Amino acid sequence: MARRLLGSKAGESLVELAVSIAILSLIVLWAMSAFGAYAKTGQDLDLVGQAVFLADSEIERLKTCNLTDLNLALPDSGATSAAKEFVPPSNNYYYEYTRSADEVWPDEVSHKLRLIEITMTVFDKATGTSVYVVKTSFLRGGEQNVGD
Amino acid sequence: MFLPRKRKGASFLIMVVIMALVMSVFAISVSQLSRSRSSTLISDATEKQVLYLAEDAVNQMILQLNRDSSSTSISSPYALDIGANFRYDAAYTEGTGPFNPSTSSGTVRGTGYCVTATGTYSKTVYLEVQETGSGLAGVKRTWREDY
Q1: pTM, rounded to two decimals
Q2: Contact, A122 vs A55, CB < 8 A?
């Protein structure tokens, strides 16, 4: 009776059609949300990848510096720098250094060893949140690099 | 008269089910791809963080050796400021591998670790050290990574 009322002549009723459309709609919505998540992941990948690349370039540049240039580039021992721009400036990121208290040995001679330990934090300009944090150190004996 | 109608209805439903299955497979594939790219994103950043930690460990070990030559190993404090899942350790051996024994005073090994739910990723840096006028200093490096 219901099939006849709903006008099914070819074997499929409006009820079947409605159920089919509902099922397919749900699946399409799921597929679309999965695709949206995929696109978002790709965007995050690009953004963090860029932050890692910029931070890496900066640290590699610091590795080549002698003690005088390191002291110019980094904040004082035990301090955190102001927000700094990458070279060349990035539209998306800025960074800060936190320099732990230097370890020095021995204190009384001029060619002493100095361990300068830093934590570099890269921030997203748009949100102000940190996207990448890396910790490393530089070891200098006088002006010479005597570590890794 | 009744049979053809039923067959057509059944084929319509089968078509809907097949379409639903195909779309589900597509959605699942995209989800998996998204997860896979996410893990790539994490590993790229982690790789660098772990390498720099290993270098930090090497530098700390050299400083420690110059302070006290009998102290031949160090390890990180329980939690580092870059994350509790990161740690490092370093050790000095008078053995010269992987470097040339005729030139080395020894080798400093520094290893950075990232511990995750799926395992531990690490990178190890080896630095050849030589005695100089003002103490031990690094002269040559090599590294390897482990999963």
Answers
A1: 0.76
A2: yes
